[in-house]
Amino acid sequence: MVGLDISERLLERARQLTETERLDNVTYELGDAQVHRFDPSRFDVVISRFGTMFFSDPVAAFANIAAALRPDGRLLLLVWQRRELNQWALEIDAAVGEAALPAPPGADPFSLGEADATTAILERAGFSELRFEDVHEPVLYGHDLAPALDFVRGFQNVSAALASMSDSDAARAVERLRGTLAAHQSDDQGVTLDSRAWLITARRR
Question: Is domain 32-204 given the CATH code 3.40.50.150 in the classification?
């Protein structure tokens, strides 16, 4: 089993969790799945959780991943559905205000949200037998308000928007964010906002 990521920090965290669970059949590599030189036809399964929406050339990237799978190998992806179906994105952007700019190309978390368009991408990349399962679950941002706010302020679009404001406007935006998150906090569930995602399964042709 191989774990691949472009973030050394996340890989180190994964190594810690692997050690805690006493797993000895997992290795980790620093790399970009779009262009990483996988051993051809090595793997039975490829799994990604919210990591494939940022490919700059998704057809080429998924073709590279397909080449790493054995014939009839499986692909499993979890990706966001369209932005307008995700309460977390709508409400956070509304709290930030006009400075919340659309994501630039290559950084759009909803780039695979249209099932028909994503089907075409994956079929061109060498996959078949595609299935899209609707996943309608809340997103947990933290059990307490303060860490939840810190987490959301760390979003790339949120931090960029706050940095573009004057100090007073940024302070007001942070208070709006705090209010939005507080409105979705409960003692039993913590701070949660609604979300919609696709669980996509496919096979290499």
Answer: yes
